[in-house]
Amino acid sequence: MRLSLTKQLLKSLSLVLLSAVLPASAAPGRSASNVERRATVCNGHAELCEKSFGSVTFVGAHDSYAIGNSNGNFAVNQDQSITTQLNDGVRMLQMQAHNQNGEIKLCHTDCSLYDGGTLHDYLATVGDWLNANPNEVLALLIVNIDNVPVAQYDPIFKAVGLDVHSFVPSSVPIPAASWPTLGSMIDSGQRLVTFMDNKADGSVPYILDEFTHIWETAFDVTDPAFDCNINRTSSNVDPAGTMYLINHFLDKTVLGNPVPFVEKLNVTNAASGDGSLGAQVDTCMAQHSKPPNFMLVDFYEFGGGSVFEVAARINNVQFDPSHPVASPVPSGASPSSTAQTTSRPLNSNALSDFGVFSYKMVLPLFSAITGAVLGPYLLFL
């Protein structure tokens, strides 16, 4: 009996202690750590915790998965690994998804030109980084180029655990002014925001339709002036009330195809000056009375962190150049083993693609050479 009484006393004491530790507002099913936790630093700055997702500017990596040496490979847009991109401060990862024999893969234009591996492996890398960095809010932008039903993306997100991190709005679309703060997103654990350019029909609630939330400027731009006109948006919303994204990557034309203008990257990614990222932001501010929410760039590390300097200026936080970003891959060198996830710059059938060129790029050159060689003879036939 004495032992039974002791057990009852211990049980009562444990309940008293538990009620003192747990706040009265704790909801059933939520852990005490989720309720009590309050983020004090968000995306590297305490000042951003009270700012809404719709009022913060994020640096984005255009074709983030298309990783390789920037010198001579026209199929790549980055030369740092996904993990390095995120460690350096990239907070939007853009990708192009393809249906490759029933599997969702990340390819550039065509999987025979650049095969960046599976979406599953890519998202697993993102999930590992999010788990290791609990005070960060991240955005994904999926270009669903083969119109894969959004329901096919759901099991991949769940398989790598990203559904747990994903932000689910109470209603859509969300006006730019109505997004939660970064601090509240971190506190709730829902700190991954995923947009998709088409087929996001609401059946997967955490994959949001891009163009009812974001409008974009023109892409594949070859004019270094970089205007800030609305290029892509939804007819169902007023662009004035949505977030917007600038495509700030300069291309040049090779054989009739736009490719990254690598030689001008230090100018294009600069914080100021003609053709710079900073200059386009100034243009957008003057035209739309608010800064862009997302700035997509190629080879973000060119400029020595200047793209992050621009974001810091917009967000009114301190830019710290004492923490340098990764250095560009030297000419002739190959990215390190950590610079790619499962990507490979070219498929094994290199002859059919003429190195970094697809058949669509080589055909005009072949025709021109054939005409130049055979033309004089044909005149006499």
UniProtKB/TrEMBL annotation:
The chain crosses the membrane at residues 361-380. Residues 323-337 have a biased composition (Low complexity). GO terms for biological process: lipid metabolic process. Pfam families: PI-PLC_X. Residues 1-26 form the signal peptide. One of its GO terms (molecular function) is phosphoric diester hydrolase activity. It comes from the Eukaryota. InterPro entries: PI-PLC_domain, PLC-like_Pdiesterase_TIM-brl. Keywords: Membrane, Signal, Transmembrane, Transmembrane helix. Residues 323-344 are annotated as: Disordered. This is PLC-like phosphodiesterase. It comes from Leucocoprinus leucothites.
